[in-house]
Amino acid sequence: MIKKHLFTCSVILVSVVILKLFVCSTTESKNVKTNARFAGYLAVRPEVNEGYNFAHEAIPVTNKKVGKKFKVSLWRHSYNTVGSIVLHKKASKLFPIIEPILLAYGIPEDFKYIPLVESGLKSGTSPKGAAGLWQFMPQTARDYGLKVGKGVDERLNVRKSTIAACKYLRELYGEFNSWTLTAAAYNGGSPRVARAINKHNQGNYYLMALNPETASYVYKLIAMKAVIQKPKDYGYHNVYASYLQPAELLAVN
Fold it and tell me: Where's the Transglycosylase SLT domain (predicted)?
């Protein structure tokens, strides 16, 4: 009788576990539809390096070529090169607005560094027509729900443009199943990144042949993350004194 009872309990327990696994996998698949074309390549992930990574996808700094490029990117973002704490001031103003929106859309927090890389040291409209923190082109902005034209440009609205960026990023992740490649595609365009994936690089961004700007883009994001998180390590001092206080943040649009 006891054996029968134990067997029944075991069956129930196994059934519950299977049901939970099924629900979780179903929920995840509803959130993001992954392009099967890249699934075989992008299932492989480098080991997470908590020292230097983007969205918990590691940068293989032990690779000599990769390590050298990353060191150069860190140098270019150091205080000796930038000579200003404008990036840290901008981060203190924008991050409290951007972070909750990224979280709501399921976008890794590391994507908050995109506005600092895209428009951190400049303002206005680029020669190509991109504008705002997320540097949207007019038609791309309209595609993701922003009003552009007739005296209105919502690309300049922090909250609305961030929501539009999140929608775009979710779509890119659904195609590439990699946050690193999502960031690269945000910069270089989905078709260009897709064409660069082959059996040799296995969808590893750091091994792919891309145009110079896109090939350095993720390095810039990780370097930006490093100098914002640990400013003193890269020559920035007393930056926190310039950060906005909670009362000041309420006045930010």
Answer: 110-205
Could you give the number of structural domains in the chain?
A: 2
Judged against a pLDDT cut of 70, whether residue 50 lies above it is answered with no
Are both 134 and 209 inside the same structural domain?
Answer: yes
The residues carrying an active-site annotation are 118
pTM of the model: 0.77
